[in-house]
Amino acid sequence: MTSYFKSSLAFAFFACHVPSAWALPEVVVEIKSHLFYPQEVTVPAGQKVKLTFINFDNTPEEIDSFSLNREKVIFANSRGTIFIGPLTPGEYPFFGEFHPNTAVGKVVVKSAEDNQYAH
Q1: Phi and psi dihedrals of 51, rounded to 5?
Q2: Which residues form a coiled coil (predicted)?
């Protein structure tokens, strides 16, 4: 085998077998009866995070957050993902644009010193 071919095989093997420790943290928020469950989620500071919204309602909801600079429509009976971060400690509110009086929530970002994520 040529060294180019060996290198390509090694790269392909490594790319397909990335350890799960390298996976992004994921937080799941469910939408039911135009409410978020849970309404408050906690994520680690300084890391990129995958927020997955699962809409169990028969109507769509648009997730909006000015502080996170994100906006996404989650269609009825479906799921959608928003990637956030890395963020500094604090609170980042989000809401459902189609039901802003009931669909409200927030992302709370905590540092390792807050003991939530300390090893």
Answers
A1: -100, 120
A2: none
Per-residue pLDDT tens over the stretch 44-66: 999 999 999 999 999 999 999 99
Q: What are 21-36's pLDDT values in tens digits?
A: 568 899 999 999 999 9
CA 110, 106, 41, 34: dihedral to nearest 10 degrees?
180
Evaluate whether 61 touches 70 at the Cβ level (below 8 Å).
no
Provide the CB-side half-sphere exposure for 76 (13 A, CA): 4
Least confident among 1-10, 14-23, 80-89: 1-10
Structural domains for the chain:
24-114 (2.60.40.420)
Nearest to 114 by CA among 43, 14, 30: 43
The residues, ordered by sequence, that sit 6+ positions from 83 with a Cβ below 8 Å of its Cβ are 24, 48, 49, 50, 51
